[in-house]
User: Which sequence fits this backbone?
C-alpha cells in the first residue's frame, strides 16, 4: 500500500521568510496530492492540492510542486506570517473512493 | 468548499456508556465518508471507511463491534463508541468526499471518558 513520508516534523521560520515542507510517496498509482492545515483543536483545512498531470500550482503565497518521477511533492509558503503557524499534513490518494494516506505532519512556527 | 458538520463537538461520558457521533455533509451528497482518530500532536489515524448502504470497512486493529458505523443516507454517517472506556478518549474526525476525490473534514468531536 501507499506510504507517505513528510519532513521536517518541526519547522521554525522568521516572519517574512519562506517555509518548505517535503513529502515522498511510494505508490506510483497515486495521482492526487492535497495539503491540509490544522490549527490547534480545529479540523484539517484543505489549503491546496495538485493532480499528477500538473507539475506546479500556486495560490497567492502558497505553492505546491510535484515530481512524479522522483515521487515527491513539496509545499512552499512565502512571506510567512504568524497566522501561518499550524500543523501541515501532506497526503496522497490513488483513487477517488479510497482513503487519503497522510504524512505525519509538520509543525510550523512563524516567529514574529 | 463543501461543508461537513459533526455533532457533538464535545462529549464527556461515564465509563461503560455508549456515545454516538454524527457526521453530515451539509450541501452535497457523500457516498463515502471516513472516520479518523487523532491523538494529541499526532497525525490522523484512519479507523474506517463508511459506505452508504453497505457495511463499513475497518482498518486493521480497529474493533468493529466497539466502533459501530452506520451510513444510512447520502448525507449522514454515525460512529457509535460502545461501552466506552478512558482509553477511548480522543479527538474523532470524519471526512466526506466531495466530487471525485476532494475530502473535507468535519470539525471533530472531543470525547472524554471518565
Assistant:
Amino acid at each position: 500500500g501507499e506510504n507517505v513520508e513528510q519532513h521536517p516534523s518541526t519547522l521554525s521560520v522568521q516572519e517574512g521568510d519562506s517555509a518548505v515542507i517535503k513529502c515522498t510517496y511510494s505508490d506510483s498509482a497515486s495521482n492526487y496530492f492535497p495539503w491540509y492545515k490544522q490549527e490547534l483543536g480545529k479540523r484539517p483545512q484543505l489549503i491546496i492540492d495538485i493532480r499528477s498531470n500538473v507539475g506546479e500550482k500556486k495560490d497567492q503565497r502558497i505553492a505546491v510542486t510535484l515530481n512524479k518521477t522522483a515521487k515527491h511533492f513539496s509545499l512552499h509558503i512565502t512571506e510567512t506570517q504568524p497566522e501561518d503557524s499550524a500543523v501541515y499534513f501532506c497526503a496522497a490518494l490513488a483513487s477517488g473512493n479510497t482513503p487519503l494516506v497522510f504524512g505525519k505532519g509538520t509543525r510550523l512556527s512563524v516567529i514574529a | 468548499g463543501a461543508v461537513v458538520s459533526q455533532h457533538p463537538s464535545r462529549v464527556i461520558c461515564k465509563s461503560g456508556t455508549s456515545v454516538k457521533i454524527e457526521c453530515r455533509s451539509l450541501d452535497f451528497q457523500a457516498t463515502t465518508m471516513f472516520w479518523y482518530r487523532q491523538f494529541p500532536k499526532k497525525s490522523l489515524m484512519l479507523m474506517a471507511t463508511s459506505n452508504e448502504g453497505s457495511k463499513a470497512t475497518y482498518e486493521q486493529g480497529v474493533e468493529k463491534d466497539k466502533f459501530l458505523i452506520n451510513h444510512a443516507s447520502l448525507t449522514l454517517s454515525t460512529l457509535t463508541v460502545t461501552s466506552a472506556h478512558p482509553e477511548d478518549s480522543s479527538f474523532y474526525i470524519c471526512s466526506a468526499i466531495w466530487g471525485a476525490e476532494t475530502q473535507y473534514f468535519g470539525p471533530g468531536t472531543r470525547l472524554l471518558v471518565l
The two ends of chain A are 41 Å apart (CA to CA).
